[in-house]
Amino acid sequence: xxxxxxxxxxxxxxxxxxxxxxxxxxxxxxxxxxxxxxxxxxxxxxxxxxxxxxxxxxxxxxxxxxxxxxxxxxxxxxxxxxxxxxxxxxxxxxxxxxxxxxxxxxxxxxxxxxxxxxxxxxxxxxxxxxxxxxxxxxxxxxxxxxxxxxxxxxxxxxxxxxxxxxxxxxxxxxxxxxxxxxxxxxxxxxxxxxxxxxxxxxxxxxxx
Length: 208
Fold this sequence. Notes:
- The protein is of the alpha+beta class and 208 residues long.
- 19% of the residues lie in helices and 40% in strands.
- A hairpin with a 2-residue loop joins strand 3 (30-42) and strand 4 (45-53).
């Protein structure tokens, strides 16, 4: 996986070549990613699903994140990113089921890596519980919380949100989870990413 080729760009989204995943994270090259946020609409209210990353993941184990997301390989288009939903969550959706929310610059920097992303944001709204079937190597579970609380957390109007577990991987023994989570429990995306992503989702939902 570390040697897979990924197209790289300058800060203006001009293509400048391709590098391995390992090298783009070492050198901080800009690259494209696919982010799919999945919501559930019930009785006029919206809930948001969050992915709990596997404890075996090299990067950000046991942290909450976007419902499904991933890097785009050099041979892939943005539309091909929908494979992440099937691979990680076991859900079959079509590209026409997705609502495009645009592209957001998103940097995650740690002492091991610089992850500079042009994140292509998508929203998918279900009206009944999706049939999750998780990729246990990647995903430890899926939790659900009120979207209004998630939005308030993202814009820093509240410090935490309540979530409950929806489903778990086959070998995960923890069947029930109800807890309060805050920003420290999430993959450390930039604050500007959380604000922009939540605001774009809310703008779309407010128009419905």
